[in-house]
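Ops channel
N.P.: pipeline sanity check, posting one input/output pair.
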């Protein structure tokens, strides 16, 4: 070959040589072609003790340090879990007042769980990860997977209900969606943070079975199936030791048994002991309430437990440096997976796609609880005027609630959504009751005059054809809000009285409850229709109006049971020592019988059962089709069942599979959810649902053997449309 220009040849040779020589100067830890572990091991010995200590505690309220000298990036964290929180100040929890940090608010996780649709959880995670990327965040502090133990927990709205299997499935998909972006999810709060009252110190005592069968499975699934990159410790104590430095939970279970290779981050201010923090598996200490936080002094974050004092101790040889090396390895791994991942995209904030996902989740999560005489849907044109009563029709419910509070670009209120759907002139509105501004961790008296609001509502209710009451809880302290529990199971702000008074005047009332928790419904027999609408985020009004009008058919199912009264709930049945405890200890006396496991086993009829939700169409269940009936313990069971849409609208049904063991040697719940599938059917259509259930999932946790056991026995698999509506069952035998 004859080169036209010999200079080109020389330039190519020069470049190749330059690359080979220079490549030797790119350290392995910076080279993404090397395996992750080699990069971590390459970086660690290059770090000084000072740099290592800097990495294991906060450098700002939501950031931990990198190693600038080595070009190793810092980490930026953000709440989570329903959207990317507005920027906070470096040194405190006040908002930084940026003007470019408005986000998409996705529906609260209770609503996501109510969709029973893991694909939507994946899209939710993917979208929130994209918003995190745009805001240059590396770790999203969510999802929350604490189990719904009582309807009083102020933070239930941030979790995914009472069933470990449902929570696991939804959380795993959420995490996969987030982490696809090179952004870490941080599953929280590990573990047993099932109430907000005394959350900073209450000591939870419970059996090994309750721990392993109810409260840990979702965390386990997030680690083993979701490969989550970080976990947040809980504030409370578990068996005498704080969650953020709990040897059993972190060292033994999370890191040893589940082989978790990610980072354990403390909840903000959840660290209380330097020694335990160092030795019991905590990797990054965040939010410790040092005085320094209030000042702009030089060493604000040096006062942390794993900061200056620890450095001195290691220097003096009182603590070996190796005690923190494992933490640093994990943090390096997290940094390489996230902030130093060159494949990360730019992300996007409030894109049309994200808004659509938020709306879709909202629509699929809304649960129709009662619908006598086809009250819903309220078809367009059927009534000349619709009277809307209730503060939640207009209150911005992305505000308040605690760390999940969001600064949304736009929040379409239920009232706005209804006006848009039915025409402004066809909607009248009055508040009916008032709760005051959105607050977190304090109570503010309502500025509204309750009497006049009440009177006005009754006056307007007299002559209208139809009323939509849009009420429920809100994000104020002692409602659905962090740092405090609800004080009552009743609707607050005299709503029950208002509803009853309205019903005396006008019976054509549909109740729309916006909340993340169950509430008492003393008026349930008198109202024709009730809808559970959660906190739906940016697209609240659009999603709700689509369901109310029938443009979308509801398909949500309850992710937790609604008891008739508080005492019916398992945890509350046992009195104060069980919930909320005596300010020092509490005992989970209902044990493994949480949620429907309690109502079923104790034969207590809930107001609305787990898994329950109506549709505007009707579904018919066929017979379970199973090829064989005898299984060994390592086999999987394959089932199918035909489901038909026999109504007049297209719609979706969530088919649930529960399992009962017939003669267990230990107490077992009446039945437990082992599979579910949501299916979309056009009117007149029939489809087979196919599920695969591993026999190993029938196991209970044997406290003596400290392991999972499947007993030889007959098991009954129920196919159901809710926990109290079994359509048909089939028996199988396990040998
Ligand atoms: C909450 C966490 C949250 C953190 C940071 C804590 O008070 O419990 O869920 O992620 O604050 O805002």
């Amino acid at each position: 070959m004859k080169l036209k220009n010999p200079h080109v040849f020389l330039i190519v040779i020069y470049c190749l040589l330059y690359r080979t020589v220079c490549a030797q100067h790119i350290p392995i830890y910076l080279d993404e072609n090397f395996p992750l572990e080699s990069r971590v091991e390459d970086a660690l010995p290059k770090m000084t003790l000072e740099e290592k200590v800097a990495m294991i505690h906060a450098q700002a309220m939501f950031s931990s340090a990198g190693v600038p000298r080595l070009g190793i990036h810092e980490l930026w964290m953000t709440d989570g879990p329903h959207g990317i929180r507005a920027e906070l100040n470096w040194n405190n929890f006040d908002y930084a007042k940026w003007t470019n940090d408005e986000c998409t608010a996705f529906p609260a996780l209770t609503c996501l769980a109510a969709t029973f649709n893991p694909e939507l959880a994946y899209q939710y995670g993917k979208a929130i990860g994209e918003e995190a990327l745009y805001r240059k965040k590396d770790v999203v502090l969510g999802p929350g997977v604490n189990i719904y133990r009582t309807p009083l927990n102020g933070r239930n709205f941030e979790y995914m209900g009472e069933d470990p299997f449902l929570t696991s499935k939804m959380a795993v998909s959420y995490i996969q969606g987030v982490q696809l972006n090179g952004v870490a999810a941080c599953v929280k709060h590990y573990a047993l943070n099932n109430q907000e009252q005394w959350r900073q110190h209450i000591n939870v005592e419970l059996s090994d079975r309750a721990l392993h069968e109810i409260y840990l499975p979702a965390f386990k699934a997030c680690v083993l199936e979701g490969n989550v990159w970080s976990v947040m410790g809980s504030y409370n104590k578990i068996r005498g030791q704080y969650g953020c430095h709990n040897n059993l939970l972190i060292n033994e279970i999370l890191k040893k048994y589940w082989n978790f290779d990610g980072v354990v981050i403390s909840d903000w201010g959840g660290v209380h002991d330097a020694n335990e923090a160092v030795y019991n598996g905590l990797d990054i200490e965040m939010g410790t309430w040092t005085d320094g936080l209030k000042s702009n002094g030089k060493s604000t974050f040096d006062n942390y437990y794993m900061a200056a004092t620890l450095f001195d101790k290691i220097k003096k040889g009182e603590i070996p440096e190796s005690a923190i090396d494992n933490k640093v390895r994990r943090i390096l791994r997290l940094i390489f997976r996230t902030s130093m991942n060159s494949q990360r995209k730019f992300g996007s904030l409030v894109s049309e796609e994200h808004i659509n996902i938020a709306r879709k989740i909202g629509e699929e999560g809304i649960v129709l609880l009662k619908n006598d005489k086809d009250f819903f849907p309220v078809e367009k044109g059927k009534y000349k005027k619709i009277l809307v009563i209730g503060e939640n029709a207009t209150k911005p419910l992305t505000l308040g609630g605690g760390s999940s509070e969001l600064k949304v670009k736009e929040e379409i209120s239920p009232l706005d959504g209804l006006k848009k759907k039915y025409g402004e002139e066809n909607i009248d509105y009055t508040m009916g009751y008032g709760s005051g501004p959105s607050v977190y961790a304090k109570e503010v008296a309502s500025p509204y005059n309750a009497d006049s609001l009440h009177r006005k509502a009754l006056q307007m209710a007299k002559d209208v054809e139809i009323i939509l009451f849009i009420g429920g809880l809100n994000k104020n302290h002692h409602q659905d809000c962090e740092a405090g529990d609800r004080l009552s199971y009743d609707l607050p702000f005299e709503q029950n009285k208002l509803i009853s008074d309205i019903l005396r005047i006008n019976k054509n009332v549909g109740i729309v409850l916006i909340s993340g928790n169950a509430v008492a419904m003393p008026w349930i027999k008198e109202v024709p229709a009730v809808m559970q609408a959660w906190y739906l985020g940016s697209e609240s009004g659009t999603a709700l109006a689509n369901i109310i009008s029938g443009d979308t058919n509801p398909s949500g199912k309850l992710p937790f049971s609604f008891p008739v009264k508080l005492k019916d709930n398992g945890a509350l049945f046992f009195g104060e020592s069980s919930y909320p405890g005596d300010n020092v200890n509490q005992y989970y006396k209902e044990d493994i019988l949480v949620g429907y496991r309690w109502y079923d086993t104790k034969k207590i009829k809930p107001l609305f059962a787990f898994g329950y939700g109506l549709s505007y169409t009707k579904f018919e269940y066929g017979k379970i089709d199973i090829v064989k009936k005898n299984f060994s313990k390592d086999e999987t069971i394959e089932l199918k069942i035909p489901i038909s849409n026999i109504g007049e609208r297209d719609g979706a049904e969530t088919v649930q599979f529960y399992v009962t063991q017939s003669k267990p040697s230990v107490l077992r719940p009446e039945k437990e959810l082992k599979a579910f599938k949501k299916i979309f059917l056009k009117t007149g259509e029939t489809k087979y649902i196919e599920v695969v259930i591993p026999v190993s999932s029938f196991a209970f946790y044997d406290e003596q053997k400290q392991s999972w056991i499947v007993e030889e026995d007959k098991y009954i698999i129920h196919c159901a449309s809710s926990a109290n509506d079994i359509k048909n069952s089939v028996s199988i035998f396990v040998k």
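N.P.: looks fine end to end. The domain at 366-558 is CATH 3.40.50.1700 (Rossmann fold).
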